[in-house]
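Quick one: structure for this chain?
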Amino acid sequence: MRTALFPALLLVLLSSGVAAHAAGRTDDFHVRPLTPAMRTVLDAAVERSPLVRAQVSALDRSDTVVYLTDEGPLRNAEPHGYLQFLSAGGGRRYLTIWIDRWALAPNDRIELLAHELQHALEVAASPRARDLAGFEALYRAIGREGRHGRFETEGARRVTVQVRAELAAGRPAV
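Got it. Here's what it folds into:
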């Protein structure tokens, strides 16, 4: 989880809805890949993991919209993924999940996506996480602070383990 704001260009794309439509998603879907690579990761994750399918379905029923990207300021850096609060408005909350596709194998990207989707579900379940201060307060309450002010939750760790087992038992990596 990370709390820094994305560049202004990304915010313009998100607020206009252009990015969601360009990625082939409609406003009915709350998990929206912004790049072809993230579309591939999401499609593989939904196909190969019952847990990820359930996460995406739960987010679609929530007031939380999650954009998926692999483009950003970090590349081949730690952590290899994080959740970021963008904004809230019109009865919805907007988050971004960033995953480093350059440093991770396909199964690792799916596991990390599931991990970060769990964080998004934590936000969706919290009525107080409607702005950056509420987002940060949520993770101070339910998470453990690690290096550089980043937080981790037990729920996200459990999801990683479960999806790893699903992938090991199921279909091959794409």
